[in-house]
Amino acid sequence: MKKSILSVALLLGVFAAASPLHAQLANFQGSWNNTNSGTRSLVRLVIRGTQVHPYAACHPSPCDWGELDAVAYGPSVAAAVQRSAEALVAIRHTSFSVVILMIEPSRNHDLKVSTFTRFTDNSGRAPYTVTEFFRRSAAPRGKLRPLVRERLHRR
C-alpha cells in the first residue's frame, strides 16, 4: 500500500513538474528587464496586449526593434487565452535574419524568453537560440515609455 501511494505521489510530482505554467494574459503586461546584465541578446521588453516591444544589447544604447505583433497560445484549442495563456510568440524579420521570440511565464513570476535566430543572407552562419529570464521593472504600468525613442527625441 505504501508503495502504491508513493508511486502515485511520485507520478503526480513528475506530471506537475513537466506541465507548463498558465497565466492570465494580463500577467505578461508591463516593462521587463533581463536578469543577465551582461547579455548580448535582448535587454528589455515592453508588452502591451499582444504587442511586444523588444530592445537588444547595443552600444551605447539598446537597439529598438520596434513593436511586434504577437500571438498568445493557450493549453488547448478551446482555451480562453485571456485567462490561460502559456506563451506569447512574436516574429521579427530583417534583411538578413528571422528571429522568433517565445515568451513564457516562469515559476518565480519572471518571464522566460527564448529567441530563435535564423540567418537568411546566405552568410553561412548557423541558426542559434538564446534563453534568458526577465524581471518586471519597478516602473508604474501606466507610465512606460521606450528607452531609445525617448533618447532620440531629446537630441
Question: In terms of topology, how is this protein built?
Answer:
Blueprint: H1 2-18, E1 30-34, E2 42-48, E3 51-56, E4 63-64, E5 68-73, H2 81-84, E6 87-93, E7 97-105, E8 111-119, E9 128-136, H3 147-154
Antiparallel strand pairs: 1-2, 1-9, 2-3, 3-4, 3-5, 5-6, 6-7, 7-8, 8-9
Would you write up a description of this structure?
By secondary structure, this protein is α+β, with helices and mostly antiparallel strands. It has three helices and nine strands. The protein has helices spanning 2-18, 81-84, 147-154; strands spanning 30-34, 42-48, 51-56, 63-64, 68-73, 87-93, 97-105, 111-119, 128-136.
Quick take:
With 155 residues, this protein is an alpha+beta fold. The chain has helices at residues 2-18, 81-84, 147-154; strands at residues 30-34, 42-48, 51-56, 63-64, 68-73, 87-93, 97-105, 111-119, 128-136. Helices cover 19% and strands 39% of the residues.
Which descriptors apply to this entry?
155 residues; alpha+beta; eight-stranded antiparallel β-barrel; 3 helices; 9 strands; disordered N terminus; disordered C terminus
